[in-house]
Design brief:
This protein is mainly beta. The chain has one domain: TolB, C-terminal domain (Neuraminidase), CATH 2.120.10. It is built from 6 helices and 27 strands. The protein has a 5-stranded mixed β-sheet, with no helix packed on it. The longest helix is centred in the first third of the chain and has 16 residues. The chain starts with a helix and ends with a strand.
Length: 388
């Protein structure tokens, strides 16, 4: 079967399944200059197919159901307290061992429109006002919490919390438009990602379908108080995490499904290389105490998504159609998974919930004292998996 027939078949299925309404608003109308570009994918045979056939993530404990909305990133302070997490209404919340309390905010323009709403997606139209904290990291030396806010850039708040202070809002004259994740080295340098200079988080569907390559990985120097671009022309860079010895950091490139390594020391200083081809669409990555890397992934790549990546005109065509976005996710293969890699990019462990019955989505994995704390920008709970 050739590619044209495959695409025609996919479109026919979509048309029947969704009962297309030709008068429904197209999500592409907001960006008249929308353009898709090709994604240089590895061969389909090179994408890892290893599975967790036991669905071990289904053994996770679900905590704080409906108490928090969209806890994407999780962090514990230098005293081991927490977790702290950023939620959909723009707050950073703190679990004090008894209840969730407000800890910090990223936006000074909070009003009644930022009040808690019943669903996570109810915030998409107000995120740019209320803020949307994503990646969180504590500076272990000072106790300061650093925040990557999708709309407000890189910010810092002290150990007592409150309104966070902006640190970086632009780099090399280009504003941060989709700050996503960060990590901090022993000298206070911050490595962080800006997923796109064109699309904001509330337009993440456009970013995915366009495969826009304006994403950047940056470094903030606390001495010069300036941010510089280390890697550019990336397609949806997201999670970033330093190695245990701080000789390199890793980051994920979402559209291409790659775990990348950027060298900070040694003969390869300043160079980037592919550390691993990922089996699914990645989000955040975190380093554990052993120097291994946990990568959170929301869904495996299907042949449908593989074909779409290589045919940008087809992606543009289907985005113009009044098809519910959720349908495109249904065509991906299965539920979330988390994968542990060593420093050479070798898979050490896979945990999965293939049907998404218990852990329906995952954005980050934080390993602490024999437990994996799983956050998700899409869910209203935190899952905890107990390691053997």
């Amino acid at each position: 079967m050739n590619v044209a027939r495959i695409l025609a078949g996919i479109f026919l299925i979509m048309a029947v399944y969704c009962r297309l309404d030709p008068f429904r608003h197209s999500p592409i109308a907001e960006f008249p200059d929308f353009e898709s570009v090709i994604v240089e994918m590895p061969n389909w045979s090179d994408i890892p197919k290893d599975r967790d056939t036991e669905n071990l993530l289904q053994k996770s404990e679900i905590k704080f159901m409906n108490e928090i909305q969209g806890p994407e990133s999780l962090a514990f302070d230098p005293l081991g307290r927490g977790p702290y997490t950023g939620v959909a209404d723009g707050r950073i919340m703190f679990w004090n061992g008894d209840k969730w309390t407000d800890f910090a905010y990223t936006s000074s323009n909070r009003s009644e429109i930022c009040d808690p709403k019943p669903t996570i997606f109810g915030y998409l139209n107000t995120e740019h006002i209320c803020g949307r904290p994503l990646g969180l990291r504590f500076d272990k030396r000072t106790g300061d919490l650093y925040i990557a806010d999708a709309y407000l850039g890189l910010l810092k708040v002290g150990p007592e919390g409150g309104l966070a202070t902006p640190i970086v809002t632009e780099a090399e004259g280009v504003p941060l438009r989709f700050s996503n994740d960060l990590d901090i080295d022993d000298e206070g340098n911050i490595y962080f990602t800006d997923s796109s200079t064109k699309y904001q988080r509330r337009n993440f569907v456009h970013l995915i379908f366009s495969a826009d390559d304006s994403g950047r990985v940056l470094k903030y120097d606390p001495i010069t108080k300036k941010a510089t671009v280390l890697v550019r022309n990336l397609q949806f860079p997201n999670g970033v995490s330093l190695s245990k010895d701080k000789s390199f950091f890793v980051f994920v490139e979402g559209c291409k499904g790659r775990l990348m390594k950027y060298w900070l020391k040694g003969d390869k200083t300043g160079t980037t290389e592919v550390m691993a081809i990922l089996p699914a669409f990645p989000d955040n990555v975190r380093t554990n105490e052993n120097g291994e890397f946990w990568v959170a992934m929301n869904s495996r790549r299907s042949f449908y998504t593989y074909i779409c990546a290589q045919y940008p005109k087809f992606r543009t065509f289907i985005l113009k159609l009044p098809i519910p976005i959720k349908f495109h996710f249904l065509l991906s293969s299965g539920g979330p998974l988390i994968v542990k890699y060593n420093s050479d990019g070798k898979i050490l462990k896979i945990l999965e919930d293939i049907q998404g019955k218990v852990v329906r989505a995952v954005s980050e994995v934080e390993e602490k004292e024999g437990q994996l704390w799983l956050g998700s920008v899409l869910m209203s709970f935190i899952a905890v998996y107990h390691l053997d």
